[in-house]
């Protein structure tokens, strides 16, 4: 009979919860799951005996579970799921009309009140919870609804106060311009008509991952095209540069550098290319005659050029009209960026970001493999003549005072701080802004000197002409968490104390958004020093007692056991046990340790990453997509005298991973997930926010992205619940009041109302859109929005090779 069968299931569920709950209680966690398990076991026994008291016991247990849920997480419906969904579903089955018919002591009437009507009591509790569930659907404690204030009619200003024109018909650099705003003055597409966007054309690059033996797992199509010189230019993961007709997607030319392929590359991606027009260039009078002659010859060969860097660390100059290599640049059209590099080992030195190109220079850093080896190549920043490829200056954090190019036979400083992301520049001020990250190894700092620490996680402003340091601002102290400055700085003018101040924004992995005066590095938004953890079991390690935090930040609240999540009570208990079993000091700076794991929150993917933030520089708005995932770090001591012993299993020919070969510790870095593969922290895992930069207030916040297409225990989830997903990529803002982003893991591109954050338009992409959209006007007079959709290998989004353009019909 149904009641007996459901009784056995209830008892089994109760026994399981008792077992899992005991394990949680044994590590200091909540005992409530054990109590719930006992209630279900008692109810199940009575139901199996076909006694109506089983319904009463079930009703009381269900009510107690709900009361506990409210006490822990309030009216956050997504956090109700692991605590009560399974119990409520079984309660619904028990409430079906025919189930109580098999009771030995069934009530005379289904609606008769009294202690002997357990089925009615259960139905009452289930009905109450159903009503509360419906009410909770319209309540979201995460969301903030509001509107950003307009200070001007968006788009009326055509030129930034720095003198740089806002992009309109063209998109001339990775971030629109070298200011990195990701903003367009175009407003043909606006909040009133964006719903009419349709696909104008789709281009397939044909550049797909070729398998584990040839290509990295971290194979990603993250390119943002540029539109200039009447063409659309971009690069593919294998560093193929392509020029398309902007109105049709027709291929005009393609250049394949035949990059050296290696499955060990930590990141196999190319985020963009850059452009230089030298057709009207006149060499300054003080230019050396030989240099002027070389520049003239280079201009004659390639008056307009595309500058591209490849994953295997070569810098190319291509004729922007034909795609032919500019043979007068470097050696036969290329510069070998690995020349004079110390510490080169397999797949350790890469280029992944678009070079920054000014009127005269190409300036770039490098992407050096994290944690493969204890020592690494140099993180030197280098500037090359954009016409000849001759090196003009260097800035090496290991020897910051000497910016002159190396002499023959000299090497750059080994293992100096690295800047792997996009740079920004204010050519009017004559400054280039370099966001430095860490040096190897990321999680152990015992070998670092004061000189090493000086530029780790620093934003450095360098003189454009000479590379000389003008100022620097440190965003973290003694970094042991991979707290790189991962984002392109954003330059705009902001009101401050009654004046218009040239500002710079630096989003960070910790969630800080630093707002500084870009002339001097002085903070515009207040900075405070926060006391953090100082205890470690690593011999010789001295932790920084405080860390700087910006008043404008999206650093998440400290994790708690109650904030652990799962799709069932069982995998949530697993996450609770993991929370209790790893060190966590309640702040983002819990140090890695050798004697067990450390919970790092937010994890090293960062609240912000290479997608940076976008702004409306006219209205002083910032649109951003913070993301939240915890990680578990654990140092693994290598046997003394065996510096190259591998501590993690795997094919010796596979990538070194986080071995830190040559050093005393390997490091395990694992995303904190449940046994069913879902994040252990409760959703949202990603939000979108709108900030008024004039006063630093957040006007609106919404969950960003749905769970459609995500896998739970290997099964694809079909329902597009908007729970808030990781968004790895950037945002485009426009004078039309619409922001565009495609970075979330549900393979959608969306258009948002910039004032309110509400979704106005969305469309399914053929692959993951982990890239930053851009926009331009074609020769046909129409505005286009373009995004690369090729997926992200390690995030598991749909792979592909598409570049897609949208326009209004």
The shape is: globular
Number of helices: 8
Q: Span between N and C termini?
A: 62 Å
Strand order of the largest sheet: 1-35-36-37-38
Helix vs. strand class:
alpha+beta
Overall mean pLDDT: 93
Radius of gyration equals 29 Å
Q: What helical percentage do the residues reach?
A: 10-25%
Number-wise, the strands total 41
Strand content: 15-25%
Unreliable spans are none
Summarize the biggest pleated sheet: 5 strands, mixed
Q: Can you put this structure into words, describing what you see?
A:
With 809 residues, the chain is an alpha+beta fold. The chain contains eight helices and 41 strands. A hairpin with a 4-residue loop joins strand 27 (614-616) and strand 28 (621-624).
In brief, what are we looking at here?
This protein is α+β, with helices and mostly antiparallel strands.
Helices and strands, with pairings:
Layout: H1 2-26, H2 32-48, H3 53-73, H4 77-94, H5 118-137, E1 183-184, E2 197-204, E3 226-228, E4 231-235, E5 241-244, E6 251-255, E7 274-277, H6 289-301, E8 304-309, E9 314-319, E10 334-336, E11 349-350, E12 356-357, E13 361-364, E14 367-368, E15 381-385, E16 391-395, E17 424-426, E18 431-435, H7 450-453, E19 458-463, E20 469-474, E21 490-496, E22 499-507, E23 513-517, E24 527-531, E25 546-550, H8 569-581, E26 598-600, E27 614-616, E28 621-624, E29 631-637, E30 665-671, E31 687-692, E32 697-703, E33 711-712, E34 715-716, E35 731-734, E36 738-741, E37 748-753, E38 759-764, E39 774-777, E40 783-789, E41 802-808
Parallel strand pairs: 1-35
Antiparallel strand pairs: 2-41, 3-4, 4-5, 5-6, 7-8, 8-9, 9-10, 11-14, 12-13, 13-15, 15-16, 17-18, 18-19, 19-20, 21-22, 22-23, 24-25, 26-29, 27-28, 28-31, 29-30, 31-32, 33-34, 35-36, 36-37, 37-38, 39-40, 40-41
Helix pairs in contact: 1-2, 1-8, 2-3, 3-4, 3-5, 4-5, 4-8
